[in-house]
Write a structure and sequence with these properties.
The complex is a heterotrimer of chains A (441), B (481) and C (252). Chain B is of the alpha/beta class and 481 residues long. In chain B, 23% of the residues lie in helices and 35% in strands. In chain B, the strands form 3 sheets. In chain B, strands 5, 6, 8, 10, 11, 13, 15, 16, 18, 20 and 22 form an 11-stranded mixed sheet that branches. The N terminus of chain B is likely disordered. Chain C has a 6-stranded mixed sheet with strand order 6-9-10-3-11-12, sandwiched between helices. In chain C, strands 2-1-4-5 form a 4-stranded antiparallel sheet. The longest helix of chain C is centred in the middle third of the chain and has 15 residues. The chains are: A alpha/beta (441), B alpha/beta (481), C alpha/beta (252).
C-alpha cells in the first residue's frame, strides 16, 4: 500500500469511528476535503507549485502505511527539549503537542480565560462548536493544495485560540509541535484554528522539533482569522532535525483595518515546505511577511507565499532572505495578486539569496499578477555571493576574512530577525546562526 | 513632416491599416494534416529524401505531444484539421529576377511599405519577402554573395546549400522541442536562411517580411541564421496579415547559431492582425525562437516589439554555451482590446563568465492580458555568470491585467542574478503636464509610452524604430478613457 | 484679457478658493503673494485646468471665452502657460521631442503649418539663449535628473518656445539661488510685450525685484484681501505675512 492509499484508509477508519459529529456542517467540509484529496492525490513532478520540491517522492521513500500508527512518546526527552527551549522566566502560554497528541501535563496556560480561550481542538469541537462551524476549513484558499485537503480530512488535534472582541492577550502563546522518533518514525497532522475578534491583539509562535534520529513528518495547517482592526503577530520556527519532513500551510484572512505580521524562520530539516497565504479581504489592511532560511547540510526548504489583495487601499510588504551552505537547497515563490477591485494597492516583495558553496542552489520565482491599474507594486529578487567590496572593506580595517564573512551574513539576516517579536526567541535564533557561522569558517 | 507628427497623424487614424487582402491566384494543399500533407509540401518544394524523412519524424512525434496549457492565455481549441498547411501564389516558372514576379505581388509589398525594387529601396537593407508559404523575392543577393554571405529563402537554401541546412536544421530547436516546434518541423513552408562566413561583417541589414494572405491557411516559416567565427549580422523581421474573422495560426521556428566571437542581432516588429475590438479573428502567434552562443565571446541579442496577434506565445532564448558569451533580450509587448500575450525569454548560462540582460516592457490596455514569463538558469559550471533583468508593466485602464512570472534557478554560488519588476499606471500628473503644454491626451499617452519603452526601441535599427513607434501609438488607440 | 469673478474651488471636501476676483489686461504683470496654504498654487492650477480641483462657483472669462469650459490642452493652445512649481519627470521623453509635439499642435490649432526639423531647431537655438540653457539638457529625458534650477529654467524655456498670451508662473523662484533667479527673471522679462500678460505667484518678494509687477495682490485664506502696487510687496516683506493675517482676522 503506498502512502497515499494509507492515508485514505486512515481517513475511512476514522470516519467509521466517528459519533455525533457526522452531521455537522464542518464535518461535511471535512468530507469534501477528503474527496478533493482523492481527486488531487499527492502532487506530481509536473505540478507547477511543486516543481522544485519533489516532496511526494521523498515522503513515499521515507514513510509507509505502518508509520501512520501513533508512536509511543519518551516523556523525559520531551521535557528535556522543552526546558532547553523555554527559559524559566518567560511569561508565556505554552502548549505542547507530541506526535500529534496534546500533552496536558506539559502544557501551561497562564492567560485569564476572559482574555483568551486556549485549548486543544479536540475540546473545542464541543466547547466552541458554533465557532468551529463558522470558521473551520472555511477559507477557500488561493489555490487547492493536496496537503491542505488531506489535513482537513484527517484533522483531529491541534490548537484552538479565540480572542474576544477588544481583548489584548498579554502573554504570548507558544506552541511546540514535537515529533518523537526515538521509537520509530512519526507522522502527525496538526490542525490549528486562531480567531482574533474585532479590535483584539495576540501574538503566537509555532515551533517544530524532532527528537530522535528516525524520520518525522508533520502536515500542519493553521487557519488565522483577523477581524476588523485586530492585530496578529505570527511566528513559525523550524529548527528541525535532518530527518524531518514538513508540509505546512498558514491560511490568513484579514478584515478591514487589520494588521498581520508573519515571521518564518527555517534553520534545518530534510525537506520543509511552507505555504503562507494571506487574503486581504477588505480595505486598509496591512500585511508584513518576513522569512529567513539559513540552510546547511542537505536541507531543502521551500517557501511559497501568496498575498491576495481583494479590496482597495491595502498595503503588503514581504521580505524573504536565504543563505544556502553545503549542499542545501532553497526555493522561494512569492505571488502578489491584485484583483480588479483592489485599486490604490501598495504591494512590495523582495527576495535576496546568498549561495555559500557551489553545491548549494536556489530557485526563486517572484510573481506579480495584477488586474487593477492604479497600483504600486514591485518585486525584486537577487542571488549572489557576499559582496566582495564590503568584505574587502572590513578586511582593510583589520577584521579576519572569516569574521568579516560572519558579520556580513549576520547583517544580511538581521533585516528579517529584527522582526521576531519575542526577545528570547530572537536570541535563540541568533545563537543558532552565530554558532553556525563560527563553526563553518 | 517631422517624425513625431507622422506618428501623431497615424495615431489619429484608426484600425489596422495592413488589413487589406490581395487578389492573387493561389494554389494550396487540401485542408487538414496527415502524412500526405507533409509529403505534398516536401514534394512541392522538391526537397531531398532526408528532409522529407526529417519532416515525417517530426510529424509522428507531434502526434504524441499535447498542446501546452501552462501559459496564461486562453483560446478555443484549434482544429488542426481545419487549416490549409500550404498556400502559394501560382507561378508557372520560378522567377529569375524581379521583372518576372507577379506585379500584383510586388504591389502588395509596396502597399505594405516594402519595396522590392533595389533601386528604390534604402541601400542599407536587403529584403526577403515571404507571401504565405513561399518566398517571393530576395533583394541584394548578388551584392551579398560577393562577400560570401548567403541570404535566400529557406527553400532555395535547401536546393542550393543542402549541406549547410542538413548540418544546422534542428540543431538549436530540435524537431520535437515542443508542440508548436514539432508542428512547424513537419509542415514548415518557407522562410529565410542567412549564412555569414568567418570574419565577415554583413554590410547591410538583412530583413524578412512575412505576409499571410490566404484565408484558412496557417503560416509555418522557418528561419535559420548561422554566423561563423568573428562574423556579424543584424537581421530584421516584420509581419502583417489581412483582417479576417477567423483566427489564423502562425507557428514559426527561428534558429540562430553564433560561433566563436560572432554576433547576431535579431529584431522583430510583430504586427500580425490582432482581431477586432471584440476579439473576433486575429492571428495565433505561437513561435519558438532560440539562439546558441556556441563559441566563446559570442553574442546574441533579441529585440522584439510585439503589438499584433490575438495571442502571442513566444520566448526568444539564448543558450550561452561559450565562455564569456552574451545574451540579450529587449522586449516591448503591447496588448489592447482582447489581445493576450505570454512572452519573455530564457537565458541558459552554461559557459563561464556568461552574461545576460533582460529588459521587458509590457503595456496593457482595454481588456487585454499581458504576461512576462522568463527563465534565468545558471548551471553548475557557469562560474561568474551575471544576469540583470528588468520587467516593467504599465497598465492603462482597469479591465486589463499584467502578470510577471520570472523563474530564477542558480546552481553556482559565484553567479550574480538581479531581477526587478514594477507595475504601475501612467501618472496622471505626467498626462496633465503634457495637456498643459497643449498636447492632447492620446498623444500624451503615446509620448509617455514611447518614453517608457525607449530603452528597448533604442535597440532597433533606425528604420524599424520609427515603424515601431508608430505601431505603439496605433495599438494603444482608445485604450485610455 | 482674463477676468476672474467670485471664483470658488475645492479639492475633495476642502474649500480652498473662496471667491477670487481679479482682472488682468494685456501688457500687465500681476503678482499674487500670500502665506503658505493661502490658495496661490490652487489658483494657478485651476486656471490651467487641473482636474483634482472642483470649481464650485464663479466664472473666468479669458479672451472672451468661458475658460472653465475648456480642456487643459485647449487652454494651452489658446495661449495659457503654467510654469509648474514642481515640474514632473517623464522618463524616456526628450525635451526636444516633447516640445516639437507641443509647438506643432499649437501651430496646427492656430491654422499654421507645422515646423520642419530645421526651422524648429533654429527656433530652439534662439530661445535657448534667453534662459542660458544647455543643448545637452534638452536631449535628456524631460526633467529627469534635472536640478531644481534646471527644471525651472526648462519651464521658462518652454514658455519662450510656446509664446503664451497669459503666462502663470507658480512659485518659479522657490528653490532658486540668486543667479538662477536672475536668469529666469531675465527670460520672463524678455518675453514681456504689449500683447501678453503674466501672473507671478510667489511667496517671496525677492522675485519682484527682478520681475517688476504692475499690481500686487495678497491672497489669504482663499481670498484676495489686499491689492496694491509693488510698494505693497515691499511693505509685506518688511512686516511679514502676520501683518496681513492680523489685519484680516481682526476685521473679519
Amino acid at each position: 500500500m503506498n502512502l497515499q492509499q494509507a492515508f485514505i484508509t486512515q481517513y475511512k477508519d476514522r470516519e467509521t469511528s466517528i459519533n455525533g459529529q457526522g452531521k455537522t456542517a464542518w464535518h461535511q467540509r471535512r468530507k469534501a476535503a477528503f474527496a478533493d484529496f482523492e481527486k488531487l492525490g499527492f502532487p506530481s513532478k509536473k505540478d507547477e507549485e511543486y516543481r522544485y520540491t519533489p516532496i511526494t517522492r521523498a515522503l513515499e521513500r521515507e514513510f509507509t502505511a505502518d508509520t501512520l500508527a501513533d508512536a509511543p512518546i519518551n516523556e523525559a526527552l520531551v521535557k528535556e527539549l522543552i526546558q532547553s527551549v523555554i527559559p524559566n522566566d518567560v511569561q508565556a502560554n505554552q502548549l505542547i503537542f507530541v506526535n500529534g497528541q496534546f500533552q496536558e501535563t506539559l502544557s501551561n496556560i497562564i492567560s485569564p480565560s476572559d482574555e483568551v480561550k486556549i485549548m486543544p481542538m479536540s475540546q473545542a469541537y464541543q466547547a466552541h462548536s458554533e465557532l468551529i462551524e463558522q470558521y473551520f476549513a472555511k477559507q477557500p484558499g488561493i489555490q487547492p493544495d493536496s496537503f491542505v485537503a488531506l489535513n482537513t480530512a484527517l484533522a483531529q488535534e491541534g490548537l484552538f485560540i479565540h480572542v474576544p472582541k477588544n481583548k489584548v492577550v498579554e502573554a504570548p502563546i507558544l506552541t511546540y509541535f514535537i515529533s518523537d522518533t526515538t521509537q520509530g518514525t512519526s507522522v502527525a497532522t496538526p490542525r490549528n484554528l486562531y480567531i482574533a475578534e474585532t479590535g483584539s491583539k495576540v501574538s503566537m509562535v509555532e515551533s517544530f522539533h524532532t527528537i530522535g534520529t528516525d524520520a518525522s513528518y508533520q502536515n500542519a495547517v493553521s487557519e488565522i482569522w483577523v477581524a476588523p482592526n485586530a492585530s496578529v503577530h505570527y511566528t513559525k520556527l523550524q529548527p528541525e532535525s535532518t530527518k524531518a519532513y514538513h508540509t505546512g500551510t498558514t491560511e490568513v484572512h484579514q478584515s478591514r483595518d487589520s494588521r498581520f505580521t508573519a515571521v518564518t524562520i527555517s534553520l534545518q530539516g530534510a525537506m520543509l515546505r511552507n505555504n503562507l497565504n494571506v487574503a486581504l479581504d477588505d480595505e486598509h489592511c496591512e500585511t508584513h511577511m518576513y522569512g529567513l532560511y539559513m540552510l546547511n547540510g542537505k536541507t531543502h526548504v521551500d517557501n511559497h507565499t501568496a498575498v491576495d489583495h481583494r479590496k482597495a487601499n491595502s498595503f503588503s510588504n514581504e521580505l524573504y532572505k536565504g543563505i544556502m551552505d553545503d549542499q542545501s537547497r532553497g526555493v522561494f515563490n512569492g505571488k502578489i495578486y491584485v484583483r480588479q477591485d483592489a485599486q490604490k494597492t501598495n504591494a512590495f516583495q523582495s527576495n535576496a539569496n546568498i549561495l555559500l558553496t557551489n553545491e548549494a542552489s536556489i530557485d526563486t520565482k517572484p510573481q506579480l499578477e495584477i488586474w487593477a491599474d492604479d497600483v504600486k507594486c514591485s518585486h525584486g529578487a537577487t542571488t549572489g555571493q557576499i559582496d566582495k567590496e564590503q568584505l574587502f572593506y572590513l578586511r582593510t580595517r583589520g577584521v579576519s576574512k572569516e569574521q568579516a564573512t560572519a558579520i556580513l551574513l549576520r547583517a544580511f539576516a538581521g533585516d528579517v530577525l529584527e522582526n521576531i517579536e519575542l526577545d528570547f526567541i530572537r536570541t535563540q535564533v541568533e545563537e543558532v546562526i552565530d554558532a553556525r557561522l563560527n563553526s563553518n569558517f | 513632416m517631422s517624425k513625431d507628427n507622422q506618428i501623431l497623424e497615424e495615431f489619429a487614424q484608426s484600425d489596422y491599416k495592413y488589413g487589406f487582402e490581395s487578389n492573387i491566384e493561389q494554389e494550396s494543399a487540401p485542408k487538414g494534416l496527415n502524412e500526405d500533407t507533409v509529403r505534398f509540401i516536401s514534394a512541392k518544394k522538391e526537397e531531398p529524401e532526408w528532409l522529407l524523412e526529417w519532416r515525417l519524424k517530426a510529424y509522428r512525434h507531434w502526434l504524441t505531444l499535447k498542446e501546452p496549457t501552462w501559459h496564461n492565455v486562453s483560446f478555443p481549441d484549434i482544429d488542426y484539421q481545419d487549416i490549409i498547411y500550404y498556400a502559394a501564389p501560382k507561378q508557372k516558372v520560378r522567377p529569375k529576377s524581379l521583372d518576372e514576379v507577379d506585379p500584383e505581388l510586388l504591389d502588395t509589398f509596396k502597399r505594405l511599405g516594402i519595396s522590392l525594387d533595389e533601386q528604390k529601396r534604402l541601400s542599407g537593407v536587403a529584403v526577403d519577402a515571404v507571401f504565405d508559404s513561399v518566398s517571393v523575392a530576395t533583394t541584394f543577393k548578388d551584392k551579398l554573395a560577393k562577400l560570401g554571405i548567403i541570404f535566400c529563402s529557406f527553400s532555395e537554401a535547401v536546393r542550393e546549400h543542402p549541406e549547410l541546412i542538413r548540418k544546422y536544421i534542428g540543431s538549436v530547436v530540435p524537431a520535437g522541442d515542443n508542440y508548436f516546434a514539432a508542428l512547424n518541423s513537419a509542415v514548415f513552408s518557407d522562410g529565410s536562411f542567412c549564412y555569414i562566413p568567418k570574419g565577415v561583417r554583413c554590410p547591410m541589414e538583412l530583413s524578412t517580411y512575412f505576409r499571410i494572405n490566404a484565408a484558412n491557411s496557417g503560416q509555418f516559416e522557418r528561419t535559420l541564421i548561422v554566423a561563423e567565427e568573428g562574423s556579424y549580422v543584424s537581421y530584421l523581421e516584420g509581419c502583417t496579415a489581412p483582417m479576417r474573422d477567423e483566427n489564423q495560426l502562425h507557428a514559426a521556428v527561428v534558429e540562430l547559431y553564433a560561433a566563436k566571437d560572432a554576433e547576431i542581432k535579431y529584431s522583430t516588429v510583430q504586427n500580425w492582425y490582432p482581431g477586432n475590438k471584440e476579439g473576433k479573428g486575429g492571428i495565433y502567434n505561437f513561435v519558438t525562437k532560440r539562439g546558441i552562443c556556441a563559441g566563446d565571446h559570442a553574442k546574441i541579442s533579441w529585440t522584439q516589439v510585439e503589438t499584433g496577434s490575438a495571442i502571442t506565445w513566444k520566448y526568444p532564448s539564448c543558450i550561452l554555451k561559450g565562455d564569456h558569451s552574451i545574451g540579450e533580450f529587449y522586449s516591448v509587448a503591447v496588448t489592447n482590446n482582447r489581445q493576450q500575450a505570454d512572452t519573455g525569454t530564457k537565458m541558459i548560462h552554461i559557459g563561464k563568465n556568461t552574461r545576460s540582460r533582460i529588459v521587458s516592457k509590457g503595456v496593457s490596455g482595454g481588456f487585454s492580458q499581458n504576461s512576462y514569463r522568463g527563465l534565468v538558469k545558471v548551471m553548475k559550471r557557469a562560474e561568474g555568470a551575471r544576469n540583470f533583468s528588468q520587467c516593467d508593466s504599465l497598465l492603462m485602464g482597469d479591465q486589463c491585467g499584467a502578470h510577471t512570472f520570472p523563474y530564477i534557478e542558480s546552481d553556482n554560488s559565484s553567479a550574480h542574478i538581479e531581477h526587478e519588476a514594477t507595475t504601475s499606471k501612467i501618472g496622471e500628473d505626467q498626462i496633465f503636464y503634457c495637456l498643459q503644454r497643449g498636447i492632447d491626451e492620446e498623444d500624451a499617452v503615446a509620448l509617455i509610452v514611447n518614453g517608457y519603452c525607449k530603452e528597448v526601441l533604442n535597440q532597433l535599427p533606425m528604420e524599424f524604430a520609427v515603424e515601431a513607434q508608430k505601431l505603439l501609438a496605433l495599438t494603444l488607440e482608445g485604450s485610455v478613457g | 484679457m482674463i477676468k476672474i469673478t467670485d471664483l470658488h474651488a475645492r479639492v475633495e471636501e476642502k474649500e480652498i478658493l473662496k471667491g477670487i476676483n481679479l482682472e488682468v489686461k494685456a501688457g500687465e504683470v500681476h503678482a499674487i503673494m500670500g502665506p503658505n496654504g493661502s490658495g496661490k498654487s490652487t489658483l494657478a492650477s485651476v486656471l490651467a485646468g487641473r482636474e483634482e480641483f472642483e470649481v464650485t462657483g464663479g466664472s473666468v472669462q479669458y479672451m472672451g471665452q468661458d475658460l472653465l469650459d475648456m480642456a487643459p490642452e485647449e487652454r494651452a493652445r489658446e495661449g495659457i502657460f503654467l510654469a509648474f512649481q514642481y515640474p514632473v519627470e517623464i522618463p524616456g521623453v526628450s525635451t526636444t521631442n516633447f516640445l516639437k509635439t507641443a509647438v506643432n499642435q499649437i501651430r496646427l490649432h492656430k491654422g499654421q503649418d507645422s515646423l520642419d526639423a530645421v526651422s524648429f531647431l533654429k527656433m530652439m537655438k534662439e530661445k535657448m539663449k534667453l534662459v542660458d540653457i544647455d543643448q545637452s539638457l534638452l536631449s535628456r529625458s524631460l526633467n529627469e535628473g534635472f536640478s531644481g534650477g534646471e527644471k525651472k529654467r526648462n519651464e521658462i524655456f518652454q514658455m519662450a518656445m510656446l509664446e503664451p498670451t497669459l503666462a502663470i508662473l507658480d512659485e518659479t523662484d522657490s528653490g532658486l539661488d540668486i543667479d538662477a533667479l536672475r536668469i529666469v527673471a531675465n527670460g520672463v522679462n524678455a518675453l514681456r510685450s504689449e500683447d501678453n500678460a503674466t501672473i507671478v505667484v510667489t511667496h517671496y518678494q525677492r522675485l519682484l525685484d527682478y520681475i517688476i509687477p504692475d499690481f500686487v495682490h495678497v491672497l489669504y485664506n482663499g481670498q484676495i484681501v489686499k491689492s496694491g502696487t509693488k510698494e505693497l510687496a515691499m511693505e509685506l516683506e518688511e512686516k511679514g505675512y502676520d501683518w496681513i493675517k492680523e489685519t484680516v482676522d481682526v476685521t473679519a
